[in-house]
Amino acid sequence: TDIFDWGLSLFFTPDLTRADSVFGIYAERYPEEIYGWQWISNCRRLIDTTMTLGLAKPSYLKLFEVADKDKVKFKKEFIESAGYLAGYYNNVLKSKDTALMYVNKILEVDPANEAWKNTQQQLLKTPQPKQPSNPKSGTSGKPTGVIKKAKHLPGSKNTLVKK
Fold first, then answer.
1. Torsions phi, psi for 161 (to 5 deg)
2. What pLDDT is attached to residue 48?
3. Among 23, 43, 45, 48, residue whose Cα is nearest residue 34
4. Which residues touch 42 (CB under 8 Å, ≥6 apart)?
5. Largest CB tally within 10 Å, which of 6, 46, 50, 119?
């Protein structure tokens, strides 16, 4: 709990990158626990509020994977991670089919949720958009966030660096 409490105390300061690093230590030591991945995701979601850098995607994928092992016990975390990933794939990567897959996963565990049913219907009605591209630079328009090892915390693997 010492590592978790340390990360949590940093989370409520302006230094979310340090909190992210501490939760990275927690996730490294306890990779099958949801708490490290959940709080790494919280930090990155607050740093990258528009999702355009894709900073929270890897941690939400891991949170989804761990919560998927016990969807009854971790229903809230499962829905949170699937919801974020649905939004990321739909709004940033313009992959309606992948977004719909995550929405369907949510409805498997919460079939009465009207908000997600409406989202599912909207995704089914909307045609798949083309991937954005920038012909001048040759880039695909994909996120450019980079995750590097922390210099200020030995052993941490999950520090954010904006590029």
1. -135, 125
2. 96
3. 23
4. 11
5. 119
